[in-house]
Amino acid sequence: MRLQVIVAAALVLSSVELGQPAGALAARADLEFIGVGVGSAATQIAVRLSAGASYTVNTLPASGDRPHRLYIDFTNTKLAPGTTDERPVAAGAVERVRAGQFTQSTARVVLDLRRYQFKLTPQTSAIKIAADNQ
To answer: Domain limits at 96?
Structure first.
């Protein structure tokens, strides 16, 4: 399954399953890795899971000193031991990446965005986010 969503300054509410048919998500996934790469055109964020999982994507507008935020909730997912819980990003469209166990069965990844345009690309047991640096 390959889906691309482009968002520019709008609230996004979506729900997608990674690599599993609807209703087939019995096994728990572990959120194993969050990678950050800053290129000249975009900041790339890769989130890798141990198995397919359902997730929802939401955004929050900037408010006061809080930047625009993109957050992804992975259901039936635990944050794997050793996964970085917060990582500042020195340059590019993403200011900071955070991860945590939002509820007992939901892992959350939050991107604090300097720029509010991004592309989301789900893969079998991963999701890639490209935030436009331009």
So the answer is: 5-19+48-132
SS (H, E, C) the chain: CCCCEEEECCCCCEEEECCCCCCCCCCCEEEEEEEEEECCCEEEEEEEECCCCEEEEEEECCECCECEEEEEEEECEEECCCCCCEEECCCCCEEEEEEEEEECCEEEEEEEECCCEEEEEEECCEEEEEEECC
Distance, CA of 15 to CA of 54 (rounded, Å): 7
In this predicted structure, the answer to whether residue 17 has a pLDDT above a threshold of 70 is no
Asked, for residue 27, whether it belongs to a domain, the answer is no
> What pairs with residue 96 in β-bridges?
88, 112
CATH number at residue 75: 2.60.40
Global pTM reads 0.77
Residue 29 included in any domain: no
